Amino acid sequence: QVQLQESGPGLVKPSETLSLTCTVSGYSISTGYYWGWIRQPPGKGLEWIGSIYHHGSTYHNPSLKSRVTISVDTSTNQFSLELSSVTAADTAVYYCARHESSDYYDSSGYSRNNWFDPWGQGTLVSVSS
Amino acid sequence: QSVLTQPPSASGTPGQRVTISCSGSSSNIGSHTVNWYQQLPGTAPKLLIYTNNQRPSGVPDRFSGSKSGTSASLAISGLQSEDEADYYCAAWDDSLNGNVFGTGTKVTVL
User: How far apart are CA B34 and CA B18, in angstroms?
Assistant: First the structure.
């Protein structure tokens, strides 16, 4: 089955760049789907960061867009997140997930199907000097 | 900040039915399908309901989802102790041009 695993430093200094990689197994990224990043500050809710399609097109949460870079490497079946100029507010558990994002039609007309499944186990990144 | 509003908590005794609401707007729930996630303590979220009312393989039929207008609901019937978790709704949002999550609801089994 599809499995995702996040990896990267657990501690980043303020103003530096947070870099994480998600390794996908059991499914070839180049086959399709979007691939996304979500984070969860300690004791708080979920926040979508951004997603990338296998051929490289991306979209991001506008609240983070200027600081976020998401890339994909189909040769290694990995995708990555870079978040620049981090502050303590970026301390969170960072999850990667496969992202279903597609058109959906029913009796009501058009809508967007959009969900994350499966998820990686998550990795805690702390921002501190 | 979340644009989908959920009650912070809900509770019930074993066997009871618990319902969690998710309130949005015309740019998200009113226009797109809704999904629900279950996050057990110390674990990653897991997809529980997709496309308003569909259950992925392996999810018990005690869990059901519905949507009406700009709101959605998750119902847990026959509540069990292992259902104690945080639950999040989510949907596409046209204003954000991306995914939005609800504020989350902690379900406690008394």
Answer: 18
Q: Which residue of B has its CA nearest to A61?
A: B98
Residue of A nearest to B105 (CA): A45
CA–CA gap between residue A54 and residue A63 (Å, rounded): 23
Distance CA A66, CA B46 (A): 29
Provide the 8-state DSSP code for B82: G
Q: Chain A residues contacting B, CB < 8 Å? A: 36, 38, 45-48, 50-51, 59-62, 95, 99-101, 104, 111-122
d(CA B4, CA B7): 10
Q: Tell me the per-residue pLDDT of B44-61, one tens digit each, with 9 for 90 and over.
A: 999 999 999 999 999 999
| Residues A81-127 pLDDT 10s | 999 999 999 999 999 999 998 889 888 889 999 999 999 999 999 99
**Considering only CA atoms, which of A82, A85, A83, A88 is closest in space to residue A128?**
A88
| Cβ contact B44–A101 (<8 Å) | no
CA-based nearest residue in chain A for residue B5? A45
Q: In the block, which residue shows the tokens 């499995």?
A: A3
What's the mean pLDDT in A18-40? Answer: 96
Instruction: Collect all residues of chain A within an 8 Å Cβ-Cβ radius of residue B102.
Output: 45
d(CA B99, CA B101): 7
